[in-house]
Design a protein that fits this description.
155 residues; alpha+beta; 6 strands; elongated
Amino acid sequence: MKQGDFINEVKKAYNDVFQHSAVSISRGCLTDDIFIQCYLAKDKTEFHHGISQNDMLSIRFLIEGLEEEIDKKSEHLPEKIVLIVHDKTFRIKPTKEYYAFSRKSISFRKTKGTPEKIIKTLERYFRMLKSELQKSIEADEIHESFIDLLTKKLI
């Protein structure tokens, strides 16, 4: 599978679950790793104060195993790559008195396999994320700063 096809498949998988949200996929400057950052917001106008780090989601992945094995001319991914989970939380109401927010974690795990397997894993993780967000809405755990945007995104 070519890198461009892989990136397009990951974007499609995220947009199938979160139709009106953004996902950023980029290549490393010093490495050939692929970085995936998921957002609830679709663009800068939906970020709190216009800052992407203020998004409700902290969901980040890294695809590694590309450095030496990648075919530079055809840009084909190797048969075995690794999906590493860097962040797997989203913001909720504070659980301690002086906190602004707390975080709820989702059970994503490191995965090794073919690019196709990694895409299937990411599809499953995106559905898990949506399910956990819906459960948190029902449990009244979502902070008032995010509830309006989140309910619009999950329709």
